[in-house]
Amino acid sequence: MKKSKFFLLLSLMLVLSTFLAACGGGGDNAGKDDNKKGADETAAQEIKMLEAQAIPNMDSVKSTDTISFTTLNNVNEGLYRLDGNQEVVEGMAEGEPEISEDGTVYTFKLRDAKWSNGEPVTAHDFVYAWQRAIDPETASEYGPYMMDGKIKGAAEITAAAAEKKEYDLNTLGVKAIDDKTLEVTLERPVPFFKSLMTFPTFYPQNQKFVEEQGENYGVNSDSILYNGPFVLADWDGSTDSEWSYVKNADYWDADTVKLEKVTWNVLKESQSAANAFETGEVDITSKLSSDVVPQYEGDPRLVKWLEPTIFWLKMNQKESDALKNVNIRKAIAQAINKEDFVNSVLNNGSIVANYAVPNEFVKNDETGEDFRAINGNELLPYNLDEAKKAWEAGLAELGTDSVELRYLTDDTETAKKSAEYVKNQLETNLPGMKINVESVPFSVRIDRQNKQDYDLQMHGWGPDYLDPMTFSDLWLTGGGNNKMDYSNKKYDQLIEEAQTTLAQKPVERYEALAEAERILLEEDAAIAPLYQRSSNLLVNEKVENFTYHLVGPEYSFKWTSVK
Amino acid sequence: MAKYLTQRIIYMVVTLFLIASFTFFLMKIIPGTPFSNADKLSDTQLSIMIDKYGLDDPVPVQYANYMMNLLKGDLGVSFQFNNVGVTDIIIKSLGPSATLGGLAILFGTFFGVILGVVAALKQNTWVDYTSTFIAVLGKSIPSFVFAGLLQYYIGVKLGWFPVAFWRGPEYMVLPTIALAMFPLATASRFVRTEMIEVMESDYITLAKAKGASWFEIAFKHALRNALIPVITVLGPLVVSLMTGSLVIEKIFGIPGIGEQFVKSIQVNDYPVIMGTTLLFAGLFVLVILIVDLLYGVIDPRIRLAGGKK
């Protein structure tokens, strides 16, 4: 009977806490004080991190996700790496590459660096990894995606494999002149090639080790070689929810690295992450969802930055007569109150996007000016009068008084809420408009996009390298990612120029890309940009130089330390 | 008994085979590929991947291949993780889920039964009303609300137990309580109703007349019969708790199987979908068998096949 009394007590406590929760809030200060106490006691160079998911794939040529990329970025190193200002800094390459006059041949000098098994990192390791990445047998997703059209010979290998013809990996434009000299030949000048070299797909791999491990390569922390600031430890494979980075004493720049250890835990739920942060259990949370962010508004521990990811409505011109009409597209693009949308629906620091290349993303090499400075942030903004005018003109041209469109979107909470809002705006502001929302799982949405089986689609795009081109070449006629039958010769012409004749003239190149963006939005209203996403997470005040990135890997701990 | 068991096991295998086949074809109806980067790949690049993994073979051929491998005990390799076998994923993530589910069932039914018995014996007193109140709360409030409250008030405010992760016994306390509320409420309601009925039956009156002690009557004579409906609801509950504590696992950062199941469906990771479905189905039919066998143990009046002869 004693037990039941104890239980009664416990139950009463639970009941009580239900009511306490209702009166909620108010108690944040207690947690903060606890945190500060914790910081004084532990001056050890060790931080505790949260991630929303386990590491899916540590084989650098096969990884496709930010968590794997982030881990690789801290335990391995390519020719270059990105620093906290998103600048390209030295990695395995020593100094600047030698670039041929036409900008298509790069020669890199490698520094003396070691793998974690003591063997030197050589130019052959790069050749091996790159060939492995493009090899259709490897079935890498990012290999062909990152190399085709850039590295000489890559697209040909992919095409040959697709037609089941013979191909020769040695035709790929990467050669080891000697152990310390790597020569890369490009299809055409790639102005952002150096920043491309910071991407994990281009990291080196030790052939002997990879072949020895075979199927087991990269399945746990013992079956990988390291050449980065840290080595991966206690990682038992992709299902493991805890792992850590331990300082690599053999790293060429080990003097710069202050942290001894970074431990990681998987915690998906944002509110739980915030709770763990409050108890001092973790120093840096994973990215917070929008329901948690408002609780920390104004708190210095909330670190916020603009991600270069834009969400827009793709308007598929393949079958819909309405969407083939430019006035109808202009009406849709201008009829959505984006300000209200980001503030009331998203409410997580995302900003209105009246553009197709993100804000705070890339700067011109020569002038140091943000790309957005050329066109500003007012291409195709919310404008109800213009929208209504375009709508009536469009309906008259079509000879109808109503338009019915399917709206394809994901089945996540945010996607559903967004769909409700957009539907409501369009149906209210454009009389005669009917929107049918179709929420489907991610893989189904992508499949329907590939088959162009949609009218409107809520679609987001994040960059893979630091250049406007990662957004601009999406809308080329017949482009691999267009998938909405948009085509404009002027647009194609400008992109072509930016890739060829203007490739080595940064100022003119940016102007051409900006003009292309203006045509895409102002003239053609091909897509309806909605918002640019922001990242929010909590960082303990004792952490110094927390470093995040805008492309590929999300964080670097090379320069981070504890106060 | 042996004959009955063999027969049941044959039925189980047939059931599992049907479930596996049905799931396989249903799964293949879902459009899309298992490639996480499909949004960015060109058609040529995508076609190489699809060919490489044999995803363009006719579905019946893929089905035959899968079944052949399944017979050999090979569940295949995951798409979303690099070179990780499905068997490996299941073994590693089933442990925490089973532990958590097992603890919740254990605590939930133990306290639920006690609560139900006490409520029945003290019918229509404040004890009974309190027990009813707790049961209503436990049944009507979802476990993730309890989880959130426990995490915030006991974990953050009081600091008695860790708020998340899965590293040792103290980490199990909060998720177990959160998850135990439902079986606790269920068990206590069933036991109370049954106990009240049983306590009015003739053999209890006889026991009382014999002068048996209160404790003896309640726990030795009455409870045994009152437990039958509890066992019935407990079976499916065990399976759903061992495997379906997805929300609780998410909130407390427990590396369990629930997430693997849900995520594999979202990303079309075919081998993992099949593996987890088979696991859940297998556990389910197994538990049903165990429950049927338990009936006989608890109540000798229920005889399994052949009992009458």
TrEMBL record, chain A:
It is found in: Cell membrane. InterPro entries: Peptide/Ni-bd, SBP_5, SBP_5_dom. It holds the Pfam family SBP_bac_5. Keywords: Lipoprotein, Palmitate, Peptide transport, Protein transport, Signal, Transport. It is a lipid-anchor. CDD domains: PBP2_OppA. Residues 87-482 form the Solute-binding protein family domain. One of its GO terms (cellular component) is outer membrane-bounded periplasmic space. Residues 1-21 form the signal peptide. GO terms for molecular function: peptide transmembrane transporter activity. GO terms for biological process: peptide transport. Its main location: membrane. The keyword tRNA processing does not apply. The keyword Lipoprotein applies. Belongs to the bacterial solute-binding protein 5 family. This is Peptide ABC transporter substrate-binding protein.
From TrEMBL, chain B:
InterPro entries: BPD_transp_1_N (IPR045621), MetI-like (IPR000515), MetI-like_sf (IPR035906). Residues 94-295 form the ABC transmembrane type-1 domain. The keyword Protein transport does not apply. The chain crosses the membrane at residues 9-30, 100-121, 133-153, 173-191, 226-252, 272-298. SUPFAM superfamilies: MetI-like (SSF161098). It is found in: Cell membrane. Belongs to the binding-protein-dependent transport system permease family. This is Peptide ABC transporter permease.
